[in-house]
Amino acid sequence: MDLQLNKKQKNNSLAMTLLKGRTFIVLVVLLVFFSFATPNFLSANTMLLLAKHVALYGILAIGMTYVIITGGIDLSVGAIVGLGGMIAGGMIQNGVTIQSLGVTLYFDVPLVVFFTILFGAFVGWLNGIIITKFGVAPFIATLGTMYIARGFAMLHSNGATYSNIIGNEALGNTGFSFFGSRIIGIPVGAIILVIIAVLAGILLKRTTFGWHIFAIGGNERAARLSGVKVDKVKILVYIFSGVCAAIVGIITASQLEAAHPASGETWEMNAIAAAVLGGTSMMGGIGTIGGTIVGAFVIGVISDGMVMCGVSEFWQMIIKGLVIILAVIVDQFQRNMEAKIALQARNEAKKDDGQKKAEG
Amino acid sequence: MAEVVEKRKSDSEICFHAEKITKIYPGTKALDEVSFDVYKGKVNVLIGENGAGKSTLMKVIAGIEQESSGQMYMGDKQVTFKNVTEARQHGIGIIHQELSLFPNLNVYQNIFMAKERTKHKVGLDNEEHIRLTKRILDKLEHPIDPCTIVGDLRVGQQQMIEIARNLIQDDLKILIMDEPTSSLSEQEVQVLFKIMRELKAEGISIIYISHRLEEILQIGDYVTILRDGKLVAASAVQDIDLSWIVKKMVGKGKAYPARTQKINWTEREKVLVVKDLCLPKKGGGYLLNHVSFELKKGEILGIYGLMGAGRTELFECIMGLRPEHTGDILLHGKKLLIHTVSEQIQRGFAMVPEDRQREGLIQTMDIGRNISLSSLKNYAKGIFIRDKEEEAAVDANIRDIHIKVADKRLPILSLSGGNQQKVVIGKGLLTKPKILLLDEPSRGIDIGAKTEVFEIINRYADEGLSIIVISSELEEIESIADRIIVLSNGLKTAELEKSEITEDKLVMASYKGHNMSKKAS
Question: Which of A94, A314, B206, B248 has its CA 20 to 30 A from that of A240?
């Protein structure tokens, strides 16, 4: 009886380890599969290109993971990417004209980046205020700001693209293409992804702020009663998501050396998909940055790999959809299993207790 | 364990019999060969501590869960229920512990949900719904407008809707009521009992689960006691008394640790003074009506009162959840301006809320993090948490109040109710409070865990912590409190020193507020 129980437990824990590492396993399987399907898939060059693509929605997904762990959602990030790119591009191309003084100011690149990020933070702050102070559901609030931000992106240039944003030597604002370039062969975007991922991971795991994010997503009322400043934490989380989006806006504009008002459209969906693939619970309270990054790479490998295999874009969409649904089904399965194991532990503790009492 | 089964031969007819029912959940035996009789037209009471298997047995009888082994008979015929519908077809209805109504729908929609009457098999016949609803509610002496949204009703009224829902099918033979009185006021309980007697008179058998022992003698005809999934005893109520029940339930005589030390409270320092606290009610009147009291260092102040008397609201005012309150709250003689919960926690207040699952625990976090959540700042340098300090504090806390955990990184839901409650109390204690507010700390935990919780409270009070305890259980509050104030309808109707406390006085005072407001109006 005891032996059987142990064996069962062992099986359980093995299954749990496999379940928990499932996204990573899927990633490895995909890599192996595509390396056989297309001979030059596993080359350094392809991998770097993959990293460059993944960096974009990977960064978005990190901000999104924070938001989803609090139990919210941020649909505005794609639009912030577009508007952020337009603001950065506009500042370099046309400068900022102050009409009352009749002057046009041109900022150097670090300042342009700073202002763009500040703008992303502002939209995030707006999201946070609308959600916490006015009690609007996150889905609706960020749907609204999504349309507003996209509208402003179009207005910014009347729908036109700022092309060739490389700055002017004479104005001292060159060097914007840095974010699309490579350092010792590695795309700058990927480096930024790593930096943000590490910072966000530490912030989430090792700070009071991070723990409070989990607490809010787990049970908002209990968190409030425990002294967690719920509104403040939520606003900060949406600001973080906005900042991540603005950074992605800068990187995209820099990679293309152009800013298009429609860029970033539907990227919020990729970010959500990456977070969910990585094990973030849409109910809130559960999620990791590591998981999200792996999730982002899974999506990246699927799209890049299929492109190299010559699969049509339409089929890519279908397969991506299937993978996401499958991931959530497995996720549910894992939750059920965890709950069962917890119940078992509870009952065993009770039994042990009973035995001790009987002996004592 | 020797099974003591005392059965009394009776003339009454047994309409339902369960024979040696066993229910096994993965890893545990919730029911172990339990036999159970239901007498026709009687109130058959089922009691036992939490986890004794009462609810499981009821779920089996109502077809919600299926037995692992054993048989059930209705009359002479063997029956099996694969689901609720099949049980319902045999005339068995159940009222759940947690109300299972649709708060967003109106009264008649709730009553006829999934048993809708239709015109020409398609359109809903709402006139018929309304007519039948009115009839049934009149019979229950609760003439509620059938078009009221259920979420707007009081809990007691909602309970009536639950009963009406079961009565609407006319073939009801057995009605299972799982702790129906746990959220009712005393008046509502009496109305419920009256209805139960009427149902009895109509030949409907009632299976009644309750934690309130005094109710059993009042309403019960037969009593069955379960312990650890086993049948311990069964008897006719007329042959037994309360102490017999308690003895069978716990296995041995148990009492709460009483506060006995002689302290001259008049010389003690006043920690908290509340003056003229008022909290306006939506739509006029007061939830709290000029309540004043004080709390001394190391004192346990009990607050007794019925549901809705304003007890929880009082805590909410003190904790900063009700910034709209008026009146003064003074800590160590200094008037406080209260805005937020986190501010109050910093000042040395801690609260253990009434509803553990909804307000106390973060279900997605592990045991350790639930404990340290309120006091995280104390273990952080800048924004970073120093894990070692946090873990040491949590470990010390677990040892201090004897939380039974195998590993503090396990999910919080792996603990039993009593240990979950200790986690919530531990979270409060870890903030090193000066004043601890406990709202029904013994709700939903078994007698063993209750005793332990009260030992913790006692010990901390001896160490100088000032504590306010809300409780609805007379016996409990009598033994634990140094002084009791009674709230009734938002008014403070009594303040009793330890020596003056009697159950009569407490109960009398708990109704006084209603009369006073009636006279005033």
Answer: A94
- Percentage with pLDDT > 90 across chain A: 55
In sequence order, the β-bridge partners of residue B124 are: B118
Residue A316 sits at φ, ψ, to 5 deg, of -55, -45
CB B166 within 8 A of CB B174: no
Measured between CA atoms, how close is B234 to chain A, in angstroms?
24
Mean pLDDT along residues A191-207: 95
Q: Domain range holding A207?
A: 44-320
Does the pLDDT of residue A338 top 90, yes or no?
no
Predicted confidence at residue B259, as pLDDT, reads 72
The whole-angstrom separation of Cα B292 and Cα B290 is 6
- Nearest-CA distance B187 → chain A (Å): 31
Structure tokens at A329: 């089904």
Q: How many domains does chain A have?
A: 1
| DSSP alpha helix (H) spans, B90-125 | 107-111
B434 in Cβ contact with B466 (< 8 Å): yes
DSSP A210: H
Residue matched to tokens 């959500």: A272
Interface probe for A, chosen from B319, B365, B390 (most Cβ of A below 10 Å), is B365
CA angle B53, B57, B62 (to 5 degrees): 150
Chain B: give the shortest CA distance to residue A68, in Å: 14
Q: What is the pLDDT of residue B249?
A: 72
Q: Check: pTM over 0.80? Answer yes or no.
A: no
B89 residue type, one letter: Q
Q: Do A215 and B365 touch (CB under 8 A)?
A: yes
Q: Enumerate the residues of chain A whose CB falls inside 8 A of the CB of residue B416.
A: 346, 349-350
Residue B394 near chain A (CB below 8 Å): no
Q: Can you tell me the ipTM of this complex?
A: 0.81
| Mean pLDDT score, A130-144 | 96
A95 lies in some domain: yes
Contact call for B373 and A211, based on CB within 8 A: yes
B-facing residues of A in 28-67 (CB < 8 A) are none
Nearest CB to B362: which of A219, A229, A339? Answer: A219
Binary contact (B385, A347; C-beta < 8 A)? no
| pLDDT tens digits along A213-226 | 999 999 999 999 99
Quick check: helix, strand or coil at residue B119? strand
Residue A186 lies in a domain: yes
Which residues of chain B make contact with A215, given a CB cutoff of 8 A? 362, 365, 369, 373
Interface contact flag, A225 B28, Cβ < 8 Å: no
> What whole-number distance in Å separates Cα of residue A81 and Cα of residue A87?
10
Residue A189 lies in a domain: yes
Residue A37 lies in a domain: no
| B201 interface with A at CB cutoff 8 Å | no
- Give contacts of B 34-93 with A, CB under 8 A: 51
**Per-residue pLDDT for A360 more than 70?**
no
